[in-house]
Design brief:
single chain, 423 residues, mainly alpha, Citrate Synthase, domain 1, 3-stranded antiparallel beta sheet, two-stranded antiparallel sheet, 17 helices, 51% helix, binds carboxymethyl coenzyme *A
């Protein structure tokens, strides 16, 4: 007999098997309360496992992040973004031949249908690029209706590589539309990340070639952002997919979830916060405001990590590498001072609030000349690899059910309609 949880309630009792630290929530229904079968109330799903997944492992206490068992630090040092995307989606690192085919397939799909560019360009030029990206991704389903055949392995594969290929193009075009520059088309002479930078920043030169140190820094950021198990946007992707939706519809919703300032929008919020603080002497006043509840220290704290976010450590190193090329951003001093104070202040230490992935990434994006509104877009492009892997895992999971949580109803009960003259 394995580990079991026994609950008794009046005359009812249940003995639920504990497997991998969880019980089946439906077991609780065996206990009947005056309000119906027993359930749990879990706002934000902070203590509820919604899926079984073999993609990403996180130990938040120890600050460990692994993709398919490989530590993210090793991948950031040795791998490329497309290799990591392959790993997440297929479950293992590719051989040289498999990688060559994969890169070729994804890069082949970088071009986007001209009508999709009109979807983006029909929006206001100053609309937030995440809004443009969300529309662009969702519109892909209308160009590739075969994506709805989620039970067809060929259609699944084809649309995964399409989405990975087109994401940087849509993101770059969303940016160029906002600054009024003509679109730049993908180039076969450049790799995934270099090509993305070229589609963003190429001006009149025949072929834009980014500084390899800067494109490598962006590649490292892409690797670090590729997946993060059941975070808000991934949960959204899987919930939308659970209704048997295609990858574009599911990931379009994921882009929307990521937009939120408590999620992917935090990197943009960090930069705005550093600018608002403006100088080193104003840091103590800002920290006092955070402690009294006036503001949040953006880029700090995490639902899962109660230790230094392992991604933030790698990014902190990349900041120095990038600044050695671009020159130091004066906001770095403010960030370092904020971190120093926060890591020694009882308010933050007692709540176990440490820098997360977003604390330093915005400084790199700014050094690469991205405006803050593009920061979350730079999160969405690589996170697409994780969303695709999670979407696929859900589609293939025989236990996947349409997501449909319970609620605790707190409103009025049956009332008779009152004519408007009598209210
Ligand atoms: N600044 C000040 N206080 C904070 C912060 C912060 N950044 N984060 C948490 N706290 C406090 C919070 O007020 C609460 O205090 P108390 O117990 O006195 O009420 C306590 O810490 C626990 O916070 P919580 O809001 O219950 O924690 P959560 O797990 O629900 O929230 C979080 C996690 C990431 C939303 C939150 O830490 C936060 O808002 N951080 C700032 C935004 C941010 O950087 N988000 C990026 C997250 S990493 C990338 C990603 O996932 O997209």
């Amino acid at each position: 007999m394995g580990d079991t949880l026994t609950i008794t309630h009046g005359d009812d009792s249940l003995s639920a098997e504990i497997s991998q630290g969880t019980i089946r929530a439906t077991e609780l229904k065996k206990i009947v309360t005056p309000d119906g079968p027993l359930a749990t109330y879990d706002p934000g799903l902070v203590n509820t496992a919604s899926v079984k997944s073999s993609i990403t492992y996180i130990d938040g206490e120890a600050g460990i992040l692994e993709y398919r068992g490989y530590p993210v630090e090793q991948l950031a040092e040795h791998s490329t973004f497309l290799e990591v995307a392959y790993l997440l989606i297929h479950g293992d690192l590719p051989t040289a031949d498999q990688l060559a085919v994969w890169e070729d397939e994804v890069n082949h799909h970088r071009l986007v249908h001209e009508n999709a560019s009109q979807v983006i360009e029909s929006l206001r030029y100053d609309a937030h690029p995440m809004g443009k990206l969300m529309s662009g991704v969702a519109s892909m389903q209308t160009f590739y209706p075969d994506a709805r055949n989620i039970n067809d392995p060929v259609a699944r594969h084809e649309n995964i590589v399409r989405l990975l290929g087109k994401m940087p193009t849509l993101a770059a075009w969303a940016y160029r539309h906002s600054v009024g520059w003509r679109r730049v088309y993908p180039s076969d002479e450049l790799n995934y990340v270099e090509n993305f930078l070229a589609m963003l920043f190429q001006m009149q030169e025949r072929l834009y070639r980014p500084d390899p140190r800067l494109s490598r820094a962006l590649e490292v950021l892409f690797i670090l952002h590729a997946d993060h198990e059941q975070n808000c946007s991934t949960n959204v992707v899987r919930a939308v997919a659970s209704a048997d939706n295609d990858i574009y519809t599911s990931c379009g919703a994921g882009v929307g979830a990521l937009f939120g300032p408590l999620h992917g929008g935090a990197n943009e919020a960090v930069l705005r916060m550093l600018r608002e603080i403006g100088s080193l002497d104003r840091v103590p006043e800002f920290v006092a405001g955070v402690k009294s509840g006036k503001a949040r220290l953006m880029g700090f704290g995490h639902r899962v990590y109660k230790n230094y976010d392992p991604r933030a450590k790698v990014i902190r190193q990349a900041v120095d590498d990038v600044f050695s090329v671009t020159g130091v951003n004066p906001l770095l001093q403010i960030a370092v001072e904020l971190e120093k104070i926060a890591l020694s202040d009882e308010y933050f230490t007692s709540r176990r609030l440490y820098p997360n992935v977003d604390f330093y990434s915005g400084l790199i994006y700014e050094a690469l000349h991205f405006p803050p509104a593009m920061f979350t877009v730079l999160f969405a492009v690589p996170r697409t690899a994780g969303w695709a892997a999670q979407w696929l895992e859900g589609v293939l999971d025989p236990e996947q059910k349409i997501t449909r949580p319970k609620q605790i109803y707190t409103g009025e009960r049956r009332r008779d309609y009152v004519n408007i003259d009598n209210r």
